[in-house]
Amino acid sequence: MGNDLVQRAQDWLIEDPDPQTREELRGLLDAVAAGDGPARADLADRFSGTLQFGTAGLRGELGAGPNRMNRAVVVRAAAGLAGWLRAQGRGDGLVVVGYDARHMSEEFALDTAAVVTGAGLRAALLPRPLPTPVLAFAVRHLGAAAGVMVTASHNPPRDNGYKVYLGDGAQIVPPADSGIAERIAAVGPLAEVPRPASGWQVLDDGIVDAYLERVAGVVADGSPRELSVVYTPLHGVGREVLERAFARAGFPAPAVVAEQADPDPDFPTVAFPNPEEPGAMDLAFAHARAAGPDIVIANDPDADRCAVAVPDARAEGGWRMLRGDEVGALIAAHLVAGGASGTLATTIVSSSLLSRIARAAGLGYAETLTGFKWISRAEGLRYGYEEALGYCVDPEGVRDKDGISAALVVAELAAALKADGRTLTDLLDRIAVEHGLHATDQLSVRVEDLSVIAGAMARLRGHPPTELAGLPVASAEDLSAGTADLPPTDGLRYRLAGGPESGVEAARVVVRPSGTEPKLKCYLEAVVPVASADALDDARRRAGEVLAALKRDLAAAAGI
C-alpha cells in the first residue's frame, strides 16, 4: 500500500502542469522517504480520492494531489465540462469564465479558458476579479452554453473552488453534475488535453455596465434614497461593483470599512471570511458605533451573499446582525407590498415564515432542497432566499443569489421606512404580530474528522428522538430516501407539535452535513403566536427558551 501511494504521487508529479505544486509534492515525497509519519499521512489524504462535484462544482483546499484544488484538477474539470457540452450538442457554444481574488483563481480561470478553447468551444473571460453574480448574469446575458466561476465563496483562505452554471444561468443539478463527473473521470493523460496559449475572448467593462444597468432596476423610480450605510466587502471583490450599483441607483455612497476594503486572499482581519462567523463583523460594528449609520451591510468575498445589521440597544455593542431568515422575510414583505406576483421560494432549512407571507398575499410558494441550484428552478420564481444570507430578487437577471442586488433592495426598504419614521426592526415586529414570531437558530459543529459527522447522523437515524425541548416529535423524516416533493438528500427533518400549554404553535429541526464545509448543521425553528405588539417580549423570551432547549437536546441525541 505504501509503495502504491508513493507511485501514484510520482505519476501525478509527472503530469502536474504547475511548478509550485510540483515542488510542494517533491518536498512531501522526500519527507516520506525520510520516514516522516505526518508527511505520509498528508500524502495519503491528498491521494485518498478525488474532489467530487458537490454544491454545483468543486471546492477544496489548495495543494498538490487529486484530493486538492490545483491546476491539474482544474484542467481535468474543464476538459470534462467541455466533453459533456459537446455530447449535449453544444460543441460550438460559449463558456463564460469568471474568477474572484483568491489564491490561484486567475490561474484556474485561464486554464479553463485554454481547455475550453482547445476543445473547440468558445471561451470568454471576465475582465478582472468580479462578484459571482456578475458571472451568473453574463451567462444569461450572452446566451452562453455554460459558465464557470472560480471561487470558494466564504471558505477559509486555504480553499478555492469551481462553480459550474448551465445556459439558463442556474447552477448545475443532477443529472448534469454526474454526467460532467463521468466525463472528468474519463479524461486521459493531461498532455493530451489541448491547451492553446490564446484564442479566447477577454470581455471588457461593458459586461459590468450591463449588469449594473439590470441591477439598478430592482429599485423603484422615485422611492426614497436617503440612507446612511456602513459597508464591508470582507476583503473580497464586492466593493467596486456595490459602490457603482449604489451610485447608479441614486443612493448615497456607503462608508466602507477601510481595513477590509480591498481584495486580499489571506483575509487578514477575520478568522473566517463569512459574515455569519463570530468576529467577522466586529470591524464593521466598530465603524458603525463611530459613524452612527442607519444600517450595516456586508458581502461575503465573492459578493453573492448579503448580511444586514441594525442598531439594537439590547445587543452587545449596540448592533445586531439580522438572521438570514429575518432579511428574507423583510425582502419578501417589501416585494409583496410593491405588487410582486409569482412564486416565493425557500429551502427546507429556512424559516416557514415565507410560506405564510406568500399565502396571505395569494402568491405561490415552493420549498426546495438546500442551495440556489434548487431554489432557482422553482416554477414561476419571483423571489427566493436561503437562510445562509442568500437572496435572489431578480431571477430573470441573475438566476442565483446576488449580494449586490439584495443590498439595493434592503437599502430601498430601509430608506422608505426611515422616511416614514420607522426601521427594519419595526417592520419585523409588525410581521411577527401578523404571522406569528418565527424564531430561528442554528447549531453548527465544525470538525476536523468527517467521521464525527457520519457518526452523529448514524446515531440520529438509529435512535430518532421522540421528544425535543419538551415537545413531542410529530413526524421524523429521513430525507435520504426523498419525499413526494423533494429528491433524496443526506438530511433528517423533525416536526414538533406545540399547543396552548407549551406557548408554542410548532417547531422544526433539520439536520444535515454542510455541502461546502466540514460542518454538521442543525437548523432550528420555533413558532410562537403573538396576540399584539405588547406580547412580543414574552414571545421572544419563550422562543429563546425553546431554541436553547432544542440545541441542548439535539446535541445530546446526536452525541456532538
TrEMBL record:
SUPFAM superfamilies: Phosphoglucomutase, C-terminal domain (SSF55957), Phosphoglucomutase, first 3 domains (SSF53738). The keyword Magnesium applies. Keywords: Isomerase, Magnesium, Metal-binding, Phosphoprotein. Residues 52-186, 210-309, 324-429 form the Alpha-D-phosphohexomutase alpha/beta/alpha domain. InterPro entries: A-D-PHexomutase_a/b/a-I, A-D-PHexomutase_a/b/a-I/II/III, A-D-PHexomutase_a/b/a-II, A-D-PHexomutase_a/b/a-III, A-D-PHexomutase_C, A-D-PHexomutase_C_sf, A-D-PHexomutase_CS, Alpha-D-phosphohexomutase_SF. Residues 507-541 form the Alpha-D-phosphohexomutase C-terminal domain. Its cofactor is Mg(2+). The keyword Zinc does not apply. PROSITE patterns: PGM_PMM. Belongs to the phosphohexose mutase family. This is Phospho-sugar mutase. It comes from Streptomyces thermolineatus.
